[in-house]
Amino acid sequence: MIVGARHASPLHCMSEPTPIGPLMAFVFLHDLDSLEPKDQKLRWNTYSEYLNSLGNRLPASAYSFAIADWHYDHLDSRCPHDSWVESITIAEPASGDRSQRRKLEIQLTLLGAYHNGYFKLIYRDVAAYDLKTPAEFLLPPRNVGHGDWLYDEVRLSDSGKVMHEIEFSRGSHWAIESSDILWTWQEIPSAGKTPQT
User: Fold this and answer.
1) Number of domains the chain contains
2) Other beta carbons less than 10 A from residue 22's beta carbon
3) Which of 16, 28, 121, 188 is most exposed, with minimal Cβ within 10 Å?
4) Measuring CA to CA, which residue among 7, 104, 114, 20 is closest to residue 54?
5) Residue 56 three-state SS
6) Is the peptide bond before 141 cis (omega within 30 degrees of 0)?
């Protein structure tokens, strides 16, 4: 279990830390929608400045995912906002003559918000993860699995790895610390055209 100190930030954490670190340092589901537009913009600008400051401290793939123009553009099909979980797989890729050298890898496949493609995230060399889903639904509608992907945040963990946190409309909160995040977008051919990566 990894419990990290909070990263320096003008914002404070509104929720209890996860077992692998503080809960979303910049973006808060619980109060973001209740903020004035200028305060929301300040939060997003602070987060954007933080991402830009990371430069080569994040692996190229994780960094390109975090700063992509489409990542928070709700009009772009590739934006994960409002997408749904299709599957999540936790695997232990093994090597060695007895498969004794093992790593953790998490693969997440999402149906895009416009239902015209699949977004896949692969977390390599996972150091820690915390996947929580409450018994009760936080927001309607009910009986929708994890619900819509609402907000996510990529940052550098205390140990210098990639930390990715995701909040879903059901109230699910996922935190995954890994060496990198690989991502792909696969358009569903019959669903129309969208920009490719």
Assistant:
1) 1
2) 23
3) 16
4) 7
5) helix
6) yes
